[in-house]
Amino acid sequence: MFLTWRAKNNIIRRLSRNRFSLKRINDAFAFARDARVLQGTLAVSAMERLHDLLAEVSGEVSWHLEGFRGKRGEPLLRLTVSGCIPLACQRCLDAIDFELDVDRLLEVIPANADVSQDELEDDSRDFLPVEKELDVAELVEDEILLSLPVAPRHDGCGLPGASGAGERVNPFAALAGLKGKPN
After folding, report:
1. What is the pTM of this model?
2. Is the CB of residue 88 less than 8 Å from the CB of residue 67?
3. For 129-157, what is each residue's pLDDT tens digit?
């Protein structure tokens, strides 16, 4: 049985829409203005960009998204994410249980808005450019990726194979014996 290109596209569109099993926010500006709240869990296996950093693809994270207006009337979103993910140690490649504690305040702005350099350099504000629709799962995954350490490793973890290397030999020890001898 052969599928037409239209049937294939419909299948692909349905699969990609159900990829995270989360609803999209149709209008992020209205979500913030109306002080709406969404919360749920997201499986680590559904966050594909995270897979290369993990020792194993397992578990889930909890998230909470709340919209509100700021002091100047600007639309804001507060995203909190918590959970434990098994990162791969950069030294020994064993699992490190990393506790997520993400708490971000994001100012929603139109995707084509002009933002001045001074506003971009202001560390007290984080901007979230949005056309209108917001994919919650992608936002959660983005914020998790931003919160991860650059090179996770165990405390006191040595290089692989270094534990059985024995006593360390100083290559300049022979020169120390020559020090102070006349020519």
Report:
1. 0.70
2. no
3. 888 788 999 999 999 999 988 888 777 77
